[in-house]
Write a structure and sequence with these properties.
- The protein is of the alpha+beta class.
- Helices cover 29% and strands 27% of the residues.
- It is built from 10 helices and 19 strands.
- Helix 4 runs antiparallel to helix 6.
């Protein structure tokens, strides 16, 4: 039950993926992927070199740096998980390895852009002087991110995708309908883009020209402070690591500076890495993940799946933290 100003909303599950779920995702694509994104509702088949094919529900391009593109699969949790979702994602990955398949996607999206003068003008404005086809060609030469938008990220979905070989991001998109007025709906989901707040805009005005507009405020840590992280993709377990939110980077020690995690399997010595070679050791903003010493801890916790939350408690700033599963 969801209550907004004493008005009751109840959880509603779509029955028809094509006619009920897809339209909602398309309608709210900018809230999910960002205002600078374009949602292409283009049904184009990804075909592997061996002829195996599958059709994604949509493609999304992001028109702000770093430019990215996504392959979108909209799913209902009621579908057979192993026989449908996992097989579908596997076919996507095989198709993406085929250069001809990517070229066909490029042509399909370019045709859509050329057929819409307003869309074409918008892309040209966002990417500067680049010609749209050239821009799209460079963008699609990179490997895309796979995003599954699903109405319920339940235990079965998490377990099925836990050992999937490729990194897939899930967006749980729940819908609530108003009591006695089902045409009035509310949606609950976590966007996959960084929200630019009024605070960050205000800070930006005081920064030197050329400073990143969406750079988040850096927050350090003192004894007793906590940081909660959620396992969002399979890469956490696959590479035995934790990604650090940019605005909480200073919660941990400086770049490549050792610190200790107090865990249920003993003490683990680790350090933040993942940055350019010329990043100075000790840089408080350097790096964005840590992995050293975590493999055994992950192996001892098979219950860690997508959606699991982890808590770090600062015992001694930049030196010692307590790691627990919530």
């Amino acid at each position: 039950m969801l209550i907004i100003d004493v008005v009751k909303y109840r959880l509603w599950t779509p029955k028809d993926e094509e006619n009920e779920f897809h339209p909602m995702i398309r309608e709210h694509s900018k809230e999910i992927f960002g205002e600078d994104s374009i949602y292409f509702d283009v049904k184009h088949k990804l075909i592997s070199k061996s002829g195996i094919g599958s059709i994604p529900d949509a493609y999304v391009i992001k028109l702000s740096k770093p430019y990215e593109w996504y392959i979108i699969e909209n799913e209902l949790a009621t579908h057979p998980i192993y026989d449908h979702i996992v097989k579908q994602l596997t076919k996507f990955m095989k198709g993406l390895r085929n250069p001809k398949s990517r070229q066909n996607i490029l042509e399909a999206l370019d045709e859509t852009i050329r057929g819409d003068k307003v869309l074409k003008a918008r892309i040209e404005k966002m990417v500067g002087s680049q010609e749209t086809y050239r821009f799209m060609s460079k963008l699609l030469s990179r490997f895309p991110k796979i995003v599954v938008v699903i109405d319920e990220l339940n235990k079965e979905v998490k377990e099925a995708c836990q050992n999937f070989k490729h990194d897939v991001q899930f967006v749980e998109f729940k819908t609530f309908v108003r009591e006695n007025a089902e045409n009035v709906r509310a949606h609950l989901f976590e966007p996959i883009y960084t929200v630019v707040t009024k605070e960050s805009k205000a800070i930006q005005k005081q920064l030197p020209v050329g400073t990143e507009a969406t750079k988040p405020r850096r927050i350090g840590a003192k004894t007793g402070d906590t940081l909660e992280l959620e396992i969002k993709t399979q890469s956490y377990r696959k590479y035995a690591l934790f990604y650090i939110p940019k605005n909480r980077r200073r919660f941990f020690a400086g770049y490549k500076t050792n610190f200790v995690l107090e865990t249920d399997i003993g003490m683990i010595k680790t350090r933040v890495t993942g940055d350019r070679r010329d990043t100075p050791i000790g840089d408080p903003d350097g790096g964005h993940f840590f992995t050293a010493g975590l493999r055994k801890w992950y192996d001892e916790h098979p219950e860690l799946t997508i959606g699991t939350k982890i808590r770090f408690e600062c015992i001694e700033p930049h030196k010692k933290y307590r790691l627990t599963v919530i």
